[in-house]
């Protein structure tokens, strides 16, 4: 469905590779055969197996060994549907994704994984056409190797296009970004895959929100991370089409999740939709613990007999307002959740801004929004982000589910480079841990007997950071 891709495909690092990588060697072809000595040139056709490398046989290790590429941090990048992913190139030809530290054996595996986070329907990543080395696509380096080492090699099917690439546009990411009305993100933008070093967020340039009425028709040159002020239903003389009630445990858990890391987090919302009363009740948050997607989170939702009713994500140091990308994503999810039937089912989005200094006091702002389609006579306008009025229900007690999720989240982020350092000062006289405690205090249940358990979790956080 959305960025957490657990419902729609594998998300873990061990499952990130597509069934057949276009840049992987065929089974049984060992590296000695596949990688001829540098400068050996092409041998006569019909010679030893693997003597003439097809495009598929040219790996990152070949290009590194022959000096076309050099191992370094942050030299690899992918732009896809308004998101940027950055990777380190290892001396052994592996790629380390900076956002999570996951290691991938090929451009294809990394590209497929990243693209599925943005677009879960993606089948292949077109790694060599999508991954750039110092701004230039890898397949250009592959072509340069072929021109140098095999100028007379007969073209084969494989040499024309790597497996899985022929069905895609070579400029796939730019083409799709243009079609979607978005543009590739520049280096300074904040998004799910923002890869500044730990702490970089604090100095990042603040994004100034714009009013919806200033946007006009879609413009692919406009930064998709532009924040947009929400509009109230009353301001456009309309009634909110559904009612919403959210349990305090939902807010407690997603607020806790959002405080843990300098990177954006994401999760599902589970609950129920009553068509008779038109009431959407949000009962559980399901944090994604594999960064941008988690199959277990999705599975837990169904095990508890709940429906998928929305999603949440964080803007760690910015205001809890939707970006143009968030608006487009939310519009997509609304359509998907509604399905093909005639009955209306809403999909709610929540944005949490934990460390935004514009928030009054210590409490994070958690902002619900919903997107109204643009007027029919202006189909090329952006959707309208609407402020949703919500009733908050204080839970009687903290459930074991929520406590377990909090413990698992602490464990997941332990040692991560973007983990918030909770002993450091957030303001002149308050640490990040003070900030977290102050925000959660407003979302606790009536029964206070769990307080000592929360203190244990806070102690774990201190240790882990």
Commentary on this structure:
- Strands 13-12-11-10-8-9-7-14 form an 8-stranded mixed β-sheet. It has a 6-stranded antiparallel β-sheet with strand order 4-3-2-1-5-6.
- The chain is globular and about 75 Å long.
- Helices cover 28% and strands 17% of the residues.
- It is built from 14 helices and 14 strands.
- The chain is α+β, with helices and mostly antiparallel strands.
- The protein has helices spanning 31-34, 60-65, 107-118, 127-130, 138-149, 157-160, 172-179, 200-203, 248-259, 295-303, 324-338, 400-413, 432-441, 451-464, and strands at residues 72-80, 83-89, 95-97, 103-104, 132-133, 136-137, 243-247, 266-274, 279-287, 307-314, 348-353, 365-372, 384-387, 391-393.
- Helix 9 (248-259) packs parallel to helix 12 (400-413) and helix 12 runs parallel beside helix 14 (451-464).
- Strand 3 and strand 4 (103-104) form a beta hairpin.
- Residues 37-46 have a biased composition (Low complexity).
- Residues 244-371 form the MPN domain.
């Amino acid at each position: 469905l959305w960025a957490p891709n657990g419902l729609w495909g594998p998300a873990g690092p061990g499952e990130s590779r597509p069934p057949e990588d276009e840049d992987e060697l065929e089974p049984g072809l060992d590296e000695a055969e596949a990688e001829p000595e540098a400068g050996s040139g092409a041998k006569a056709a019909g010679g030893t197996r693997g003597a003439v490398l097809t495009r598929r046989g040219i790996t990152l290790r070949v290009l590194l060994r022959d000096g076309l590429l050099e191992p370094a941090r942050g030299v690899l990048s992918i732009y896809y549907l308004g998101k940027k992913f950055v990777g380190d190139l290892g001396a052994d030809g592996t790629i380390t994704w900076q956002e999570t530290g996951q290691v991938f054996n090929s451009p294809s595996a990394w590209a497929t994984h990243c693209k599925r986070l943005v677009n879960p329907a993606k089948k292949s990543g077109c790694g060599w056409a999508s991954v750039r080395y110092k701004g230039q696509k890898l397949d250009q380096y592959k072509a340069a190797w072929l021109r140098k080492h095999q100028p007379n090699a007969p073209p084969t099917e494989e040499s024309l296009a790597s497996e899985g690439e022929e069905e895609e546009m070579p400029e796939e990411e730019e083409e799709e970004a243009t079609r979607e009305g978005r543009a590739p993100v520049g280096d300074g933008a904040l998004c799910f895959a923002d890869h500044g070093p730990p702490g970089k967020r604090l100095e990042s340039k603040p994004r100034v929100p714009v009013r919806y009425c200033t946007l006009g028709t879609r413009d692919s040159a406009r930064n998709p991370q532009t924040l947009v002020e929400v509009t109230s239903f009353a301001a456009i003389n309309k009634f909110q089409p559904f009612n919403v009630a959210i349990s305090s445990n939902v807010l407690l858990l997603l607020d806790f999740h959002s405080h843990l890391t300098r990177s954006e987090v994401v999760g599902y919302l589970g609950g129920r939709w009553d068509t008779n009363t038109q009431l959407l009740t949000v009962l559980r948050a399901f944090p994604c613990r594999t960064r941008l997607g988690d199959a277990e989170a999705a599975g837990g939702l169904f095990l508890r007999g709940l429906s998928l009713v929305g999603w949440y994500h964080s803007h760690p140091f910015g205001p809890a307002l939707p970006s143009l990308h968030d608006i487009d994503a939310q519009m997509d999810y609304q359509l998907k959740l509604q399905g093909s039937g005639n009955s209306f089912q809403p999909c709610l989005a929540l944005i949490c801004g934990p460390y935004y200094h514009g928030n009054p006091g210590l409490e994070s702002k958690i902002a619900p929004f919903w997107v109204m389609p643009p007027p029919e006579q202006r189909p090329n306008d952006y959707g309208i982000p609407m402020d949703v009025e919500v009733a908050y229900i204080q839970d009687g007690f903290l459930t074991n589910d929520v406590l377990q999720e909090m413990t698992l989240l602490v464990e997941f982020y332990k040692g991560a480079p973007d983990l918030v350092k909770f002993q450091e000062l957030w303001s002149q006289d308050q640490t990040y841990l003070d900030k977290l405690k102050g925000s959660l205090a407003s979302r606790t249940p009536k029964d206070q007997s769990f307080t000592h358990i929360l203190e244990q979790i806070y102690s774990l956080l201190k240790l882990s950071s």
